[in-house]
Write a structure and sequence with these properties.
With about 130 residues, the protein is α+β, with helices and mostly antiparallel strands. It contains 3 helices and 6 strands; from the N terminus they run H-E-E-E-H-E-E-H-E.
């Protein structure tokens, strides 16, 4: 009887070790393909691209001056990737601002939105997309 229980215990232990090694193998493959490009040297490289449609308060607002104000008011962790212009109606042109925010900055998008609300020549803005790059 003792021999049978020892064999059963060894078989159970072998099964557990095979399952553990299979899980480790899957985890290593997963982390090699997914997390290696994101984490390099302990530092996160991923950023979040936020696209905002910004509506000026008036048709006569200079778009270049507005773009400069947007760049100047952003928090130090955020940066402008690029600006685009989109005609709306009756001469009104909206600015689509593509902004980069660090992925690990909690509340970063909220801080950017609060900074944009302080610009007096912006009547409204809306978030178009938020994606990880």
């Amino acid at each position: 009887m003792l021999l049978g229980s020892t064999f059963s215990a060894k078989r159970s232990c072998l099964r557990d070790s095979l399952i553990t090694s299979a899980v480790k193998s899957i985890t290593l493959k997963y982390s090699r393909f997914v997390f290696t490009p994101i984490i390099k040297g302990g530092e996160r490289l991923a950023r979040v691209l936020v696209s905002l449609k910004i509506f000026p308060s008036d048709v006569n607002v200079g778009l270049d001056a507005l773009k400069k104000k947007i760049e100047d008011c952003l928090p130090e962790f955020a940066s402008v990737y690029k600006f685009e212009e989109e005609p709306i109606a009756f001469g009104l042109v909206a600015i689509i601002a593509h902004l980069l925010v660090p992925e690990d900055k909690a509340g970063g998008i909220d801080e950017v939105e609060e900074a944009l609300k302080k610009i007096d020549v912006i009547s409204n803005f809306q978030t178009l997309t938020i994606r990880r790059v």
